[in-house]
Design a protein that fits this description.
CATH superfamily of the largest domain: Tetracycline Repressor, domain 2
Number of strands: 0
Mean pLDDT: 93
Organism: Tropicimonas omnivorans
Number of helices: 10
Strand content: under 5%
Low-confidence stretches: none
CATH architecture of the largest domain: Orthogonal Bundle
Protein name: TetR family transcriptional regulator C-terminal domain-containing protein
Distance between the termini: 55 Å
CATH topology of the largest domain: Tetracycline Repressor, domain 2
Keywords: DNA-binding
Largest sheet: none
Length: 196
């Protein structure tokens, strides 16, 4: 692949991320993506034959990046520090990648037609593995008793809500930055959960 082809694919991916995160899958069109990328529709189709192809590539790339913080949870680490570190990394990822977070949320709201196999396969196994680590820490008395899967899903819900529902968060709090104060609040909340 030439340098120009790589550059155009990157432009298309960036434009598609913007269009999909703003309009959802159904509201996105190849015309809108091409316009956002500053390319003609035939030029876009040269690289991607359909919006499904672009969407799937974006989601696949997102999932591996999105799961890095959970993958990094170290069974040999200090339990509270590992879990609070995960919360912090997940919140940072939401802050750095709000469009990607909305893209993923939209896919889930659609019933996950493109990523269902990943959810029931690799993601299911990763969550089971890390939940077992968390529950092992609880069984050893190193943290308060907690359902590992429920804790992980709570972390997802709380860290992503700030960007997935930023319009609501801004309206309710009156704050310009929906993440202002979130890190301190979540650390306190999860620390209390882990200490019982």
């Amino acid at each position: 692949m030439s340098r120009i082809q790589k550059r155009n694919r990157a432009r298309i991916a960036e434009a598609a991320l913007e269009v999909f995160s703003r309009n959802g899958f159904r509201g996105a069109t190849l015309d809108a993506i091409a316009g956002e990328a500053g390319l003609s529709k035939p030029n876009l189709i040269y690289y991607y034959p359909s919006k499904e192809t672009i969407y799937e590539e974006l989601l696949t790339g997102l999932l591996s990046r999105w799961l890095e913080p959970l993958t990094a949870l170290d069974p040999a680490g200090e339990p509270e520090a590992e879990i609070l570190g995960y919360v912090s990394r997940k919140l940072d990822l939401s802050r750095q990648m709000p469009r990607e977070s909305r893209l993923f949320a939209n896919e889930i709201l659609r019933g996950a037609p493109l990523i269902a196999p990943h959810l029931t396969g690799p993601l299911h196994r990763l969550v089971a593995e890390k939940a077992a680590v968390i529950e092992g820490w609880a069984a050893a008395g190193r943290i308060a008793p907690v359902d590992g899967r429920q804790l992980i899903m709570s972390i997802w819900a709380l860290t992503q809500h700030y960007v997935d529902a930023d319009v609501q968060v801004r309206a309710v709090t009156g704050m310009a930055d929906p993440l202002a104060g979130a890190a301190a609040h979540l650390e306190t909340l999860f620390r209390r959960t882990l200490r019982g």
